[in-house]
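Researcher: We're teaching a course module on how sequence relates to structure. For the next exercise, students receive a sequence and then see the predicted structure as tokens, so they can try to spot secondary structure elements on their own. Here is the exercise chain.
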Amino acid sequence: MSNNDRTEDVVIIGSGPAGWTAAIYAARARLEPLVFEGAPSREMIPGGQLMFTTEVENYPGFPEGVDGQTLMLDMRAQAERFDTRIITEDIVEVDTSTRPFLLRSSEGQEVRARTVIVATGARANWLGLENEQRLAQSGGGVSACAVCDGALPAFRDQVLAVVGGGDSAMEEAVYLSKFASEVVIIHRRDTFRASPIMAERALDNPKIRVEWNTIVTDVLGDDFVTGLRLQDTVTGEEREMEVGGFFLAIGHTPNTAFLKDVVEMDDTGYIVTPTPWRTETTVEGIFAAGDVMDSYYRQAVTAAGTGCMAALEAERYLAHGGGASPSAAEVPAEPVAAAES
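Model: And here is the predicted structure for the students to work with:
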């Protein structure tokens, strides 16, 4: 338990583009934010999913692209430049029965906070194969985001495989067909669960074919994916297929387990923000930013944008007296005293 009796104005939970952007804005507004950037684990590390991305070509301001780790470390350094304080621990509990809120960390620290910005992101769902994870983390042609990586030179004019059967898989396959010589959708059943219009769009695409009743049992390749080992779910027969890229489209899981029964979430665990174009949650004073509240875009630039929004809303909330005044969503839209560059 922490001996620090200080009550924080802003505590930010998470450290991807949303968390660091929120920290930069809050720090420049002299709110002295405290960031719990998360503890490293097998699934997530501080900095979020971009820490596993070797090349980012769609983040504005980098005409030659930028390494994902470099981008995240630069954002972190920018937040530190404005005296953001950082703790490399997880928040495991948020107690809203008291004001200010009481937060408990994975190492037993307790922190009081007038506002909280949740930016813990979402983790891609994987098949759990050893080579899949190894090649994904090393930039070896395995990805869970076609929009992020599909246009990279390494994937152009290659046979690319997409695993999944929902709308996301259809969208990923159609997107990849712009760059690939062929896209192969691998699906464990004999029908898609995607909406009819999305399935039709993929099936009508001449560059897309489907491997029905098929699962991936291994990813082949040393430094870069060269193929997949497949198994027929009906006959059990195994075979290999050469591919130049492997994309997972079997969904994401938001990192919100620690907020169960604290804020409202949808059926898949994404945090609900009731007011359109706002980041405040169903608990006044708690805001959400990035992939943790966005199941649609899931891009670094949109995450950063909502991080900015959350910091501005937290600043406005505090300026109006916190819980003693109307929430940010009820205050008339007026300029916020943010330190704009």
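Model: If you want an answer key for the exercise: The helical segments are 17-28, 68-81, 130-137, 146-149, 167-176, 196-203, 300-319. DSSP finds seven helices and 17 strands in the chain.
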